[in-house]
Amino acid sequence: MRNNISSLHKYEKVLLFFLFIFSILINQYYGNLGVSPLDSFSHFDTSFRVLNGEFPFRDFWAISGPIVDYIQAIFFFIFGINWQAYVLHASFINGILTLTSYLVFRNFNLSVGYSFFYSFLFSILAYPTSGTPFVDHHAAFFSLLGVYFSILAIKKENKFFWYMLPIFFGFAFLSKIVPSSYIILCLTIILLSYSYINKKFHLLKYSIFSSIIFILLLIFIFKLQGVKISSVLIQYILHPLSVGSERVDFYSLTFKGLIFHFKFIYFALVPFFFVTIKRIIKNKNYLKHKDFYYILIILSLVFTLIVHQILTQNQTFIFFLIPILTAFSHVSLEKLKLKKNYLKILLILLCIYSTTKYHFRFNENRKFHDLNHLDFNLVLDGSLIDNKFNGLKWISPEFPNNPKKEIRLLLKIKNLLNADKRKKVLITNYSFFSGILDLKLNSPVRWHLTSGQTSPKPGSKYFKNYRNFYLEKLKENEIEVIYIIKPFDTNVLTGIIDEKCLQTSEIDENINIHLIQKCNNLR
Hints:
This protein has 523 residues and is mainly α. The protein has helices at 2-31, 37-40, 44-51, 66-79, 83-107, 112-125, 135-156, 159-173, 177-197, 201-224, 229-250, 255-258, 263-282, 290-312, 321-336, 342-364, 403-419, 433-437, 463-476, and strands at residues 380-381, 393-394, 424-427, 481-485, 502-506, 511-516. The strands form two sheets. It has a four-stranded mixed sheet with strand order 3-4-6-5, with no helix packed on it. It has a two-stranded antiparallel ribbon with strand order 1-2.
């Protein structure tokens, strides 16, 4: 008997090792397949800047993702400033989530084979849809870890899980305030209700203590780095909330958008939900049962992520929920002890079909980054730009039919920046030149967009704060010249710097240089 248990443990360790390696490799592969400049490089230069002593909120305007920059800075510190280290960050998160999913499924007595199966499918639909670090993914995945630990905290009543869950939710919030704040609010209500109804108040003290320590440590780090709390509030909370409220005002809810688009998520959830309703009807005391809170926690995650996807109107990335929900539905059906396995077989087939469907759509065709219309036969080696991009298969939506032209442009920009010894700012979607050139390019904002999503636009309640911040950074860094790369033009500086204060010269159709003049309006 002991030999059988020992051999099972060895077999399970091999499966876990395989899952972890596969999760990393699949993300590394797809993270190297094409780029969408704004999204793919969104944390490359800013993480390099953090590594060199510059910080979000203090040195550049950031509406989301400070934790992504800090984690990536650690990867750059360990593995060097290069593309593979950048993708490895997302790959590592994919691996950790896959292993955690497996362990959670096993804690609900799902067999080794089924736990492996659902975790394997999860790893395909999780981070590979992006491939590179992305704030929405980080926020959702740290929230998922918080959900997992909330479920285990109730199931095991182990103080370790109660200590850890605020940390994961804190990391989720520091990735992006939505959907993290929605999930944190829902989970707080659910955990308080569980503690009150079941008289388990003593368990809350661990999470309360952990939350206080986390907040105090965060304030201490901000203080140590010279980051003003008022800057954090305006950049990270107040301005994004104003943008979010505008999206809600203009959004029109449709049946297709709410139901049909997420149909496979709902299908995977149905058995789990149905079994719970059946138990509530049969057992009046079931509302006190731990199983009831598991479904509440999972429903909160599902519907907050769906609401987030609907309101942001970005590419959908939450289909990783399908294997998770199918696994919990499978657990529920196991408890019914059905004589026939038709429902389980149907669930498994549904999970395989939907995973395959979304794998080809989002991984193979790279739809999340809008690369699905590109011809990947045209890809070029990223090392043509710089050796730090070795292994990257370069093609982008900016030059869909001519990546050679795009690379020539990037090499020209690279040479210009390297040769220009003046103190400068670079405004571009290709946010990697600081990293590959080891140059300080001083952009006062992480992402430049004229839509008002990443920074306040003229007329916004917070535009004055943004303008003052921008000008302060230009003055503080003694900036002499601003490089602007298309699709941007001087409109990106509208309301910040008067055009009379800029002497503009055009290098070519894609590159403009703006020499800053002494000007009364620039103050």
